[in-house]
Amino acid sequence: MKIGDEYNIPLIGISEWQALASACAIDSEVLMNRLRQLADALPDAVSAARDQALADGLNRKVVTTLANLLILHAKARRAALNAPASKRRRSHKIVAKN
Predict the structure, then answer these.
(1) Left (φ > 0), alpha (ψ -120 to 50) or beta: where does 57 sit?
(2) Shortest CA distance to 89 belongs to which of 33, 2, 16?
(3) What is the pTM (predicted TM-score) of this model?
(4) CA 18 – CA 59 distance, rounded (Å)
(5) Residue 34 is inside which H or E element, if any?
(6) Is the pLDDT of residue 33 over 70?
(7) Which run of H or E residues covers position 21?
(8) pLDDT beyond 60 at 22
(9) In sequence order, which residues have a C-beta less than 8 Å from that of residue 22 and are 6 or more positions away?
(10) Average pLDDT of the chain, as a whole number
(11) Euclidean distance between the first and final Cα of the chain, in Å?
C-alpha cells in the first residue's frame, strides 16, 4: 500500500502522510498526532510482548532479534514524522542488536 505517492517505507514522511490525509478527507493534524502517538507507544508494547514471549519460553534469540528490529523501525518511523524530506531520502538500514 502506498502512502501519498510512496511505497518505500523509509521514504514516507510528513508530506506523504498529509497527501494520504487529503485523499481520504481526514484532518492531517489529527492523523499526524495519531501517528506520533502510535509510534511513541510501539516500543513499550513490543517490549511487553517480548517479555511475555520470553516468559512463555519462546526462543530468546528469535524473540529478542525481532523485538529489537521492531523497536528500531518504530523509532525510525517516528523520527521521519519530523524530518525534512532531504534527510528522509537517504538509505535507511535497520540492524538488530542481540
Answers:
(1) left
(2) 16
(3) 0.75
(4) 40
(5) helix 28-55
(6) yes
(7) helix 14-23
(8) yes
(9) 28
(10) 88
(11) 31
- The number of helix segments (H) and strand segments (E) in the chain equals 4, 0
Extract the C-alpha cell encoding 34: 495519531
Q: Tell me the pLDDT band of 90, cut-offs 50, 70 and 90.
A: very low
Residues 6+ apart with CB under 8 A from 12: 3, 4, 6, 77, 80, 88
- For the chain, give the percent of residues with pLDDT over 90: 73
Burial of 17 (0-12, 13-18, 19+ CB in 10 A): buried
Dihedral over Cα of 72, 32, 4, 24: its sign? positive
